[in-house]
Each structure stands twice: as C-alpha cells, then as structure tokens.
Amino acid sequence: MTRILHVVTNVSHFDDPTDPTGLWLSELTHAWDVFAEQGYEQTIVSPLGGYVPLEPRSLSFPFYDDSAQDWYTDPDRMALLGTTLSPADVDPSDFDAIYFTGGHAAMYDFPDNPGLQQLARSMWEQGGIVSSVCHGYCGLLNVQLSDGSSLIDARSLTGFSWPEEIVAGVAKKVPYNVEEAAKERGARYEKTPIPFTAHVVTDGRLVTGQNPGSAKKTAERVVEILNQSASRV
Questions:
Q1: What pLDDT shows up at residue 233?
Q2: Cα separation of 219 and 215, whole Å?
Q3: What is the pLDDT of residues 172-182, one digit of tens each?
Q4: Domains of the chain: which residue ranges?
Q5: PANTHER family per the record (predicted)?
Q6: What pTM did the predictor assign?
C-alpha cells in the first residue's frame, strides 16, 4: 500500500489577529483526489496536531471548485481537519511521500517546526518523495540533512512567487519574501512568467508546484515518480 503524508497548517491569521488566513483548501483536495484515484492511503499531519483553519479566500470563486466544495460539505472529510496528527504521532518510515500544502499561514508554522523538519529529512533520506505546493515550500526552507547540508541547496524548485504576492495584494502582510528565502538557501528557484499559471518543477525526488492551480499537476507528478520506482522493483 502506497502511503502519502499531507502537511497542513494550524495558523489562523496574519500578524494582525483580525486578518484571517489558513490552509488553502483546494491545494489539499486536488492532491487528495489524485492520490485517492490511485488507491493510496492518506494521512494528515500539522505542526501542532488537531484543528486546521481554512483560508477564507480559498472558499470563494474561482478557487472554491467542485473538489473543494465536495470536501467542505462532507462532514467526515472536514472532521479530518479537526483531528490531524502531530509530527510526534508519525513514523516517517510508514510513508512513501510527503506533500506540504500551502496557504499564507504556512509561512508562520512550517519553517521552524523541528517535527516537520525531521519528517522531511527522514523521508528524503529513506528514498521517499518530498513535495510541496504554493507556500508549502516554506516547510522545506530549513530542512537540514544528516550531513548538515540543506535539502534545497543546489536543487531546482518552485513555490508561490513574489510577483504573485503582489498581484494577490498581500505583499505588505506576509512576514517575509519566501521566494528570496529559498534563493538565499541555495535553491535554484524557478517561476512561470505569468502569475498564477500552473507550474511544476521536478528535481529527482523533489517535486514542487508554484501556486494553487499547480496542486493537481504536482500530485500527478508524484504519482508518476512512484510508478517509475515501482516498475524498477
């Protein structure tokens, strides 16, 4: 049984407590749907475990599509976002791939969480796939491998770009420029010249998508790599 570990945020607002944010729902649901079609077993973890708030803008047109609606209106699936595991509850050897979802909230609780870093490091070093979409790559910024090197140093990746922050009207709200942060850590950052166009970058077992519209293609690429690995066994 192939198993996927989804990572989601616990943070509910920007620096201003009255300015809500959270998980960008479709970034979870689009990938979940792709993996479900393959019959994969899926688990959700968050930095603290427990409840996961949703980004309000992800519940509006055009992001609130059939996939997101099907999840949001299903009490059983919504219950999964109220009872997520914490990193301490997870054995990384049980999983074949980790998938960091986004939403601006991930900028706050992903980068410096030691539990998430340990999960990503262990899964990478055991030969698993490390993937992210949009702001999910904040969870990769500070992952150090056992030899002390950075997971993303000299590797190609993508994620939500600074021009997209500007277009989205949140450049003055975000706590840092994650595109620049990735570059500062040695990543070979790539982005599509047209904001919000789907874009996926693959570097070996590292698979990253740029924005919410890239979630499905990111998951599909993960499936392709898993199938390639299976065919070699």
A1: 57
A2: 6
A3: 999 999 999 99
A4: 3-232
A5: GLUTATHIONE-INDEPENDENT GLYOXALASE HSP31-RELATED, PROTEIN/NUCLEIC ACID DEGLYCASE DJ-1-RELATED
A6: 0.97
Q: What one-letter code names the amino acid at 70?
A: D
- The beta strands (E) that lie in the chain are given as 3-7, 41-45, 97-100, 129-133, 156-157, 188-189, 200-203, 206-209
State which amino acid sits at residue 47.
P
Per-residue pLDDT of 190-232, as tens digits, reads 999 999 999 999 999 999 999 999 999 999 999 999 999 877 6
**DSSP H or E stretch at residue 166:** helix 162-168
| Tokens encoding 3 | 């198993």
Residue 169 in this model has a pLDDT that exceeds 70: yes
Kindly state the tokens that stand for 201: 């970058």
Asked whether the beta carbons of 158 and 164 are under 8 A apart, the reply is: no
Pick the CATH number of 3-232 from 3.20.20.100, 3.30.70.270, 3.40.50.880, 3.30.70.420: 3.40.50.880
CB 52 within 8 A of CB 110: no
Scanning the structure block, which residue is given the tokens 């890239």?
214
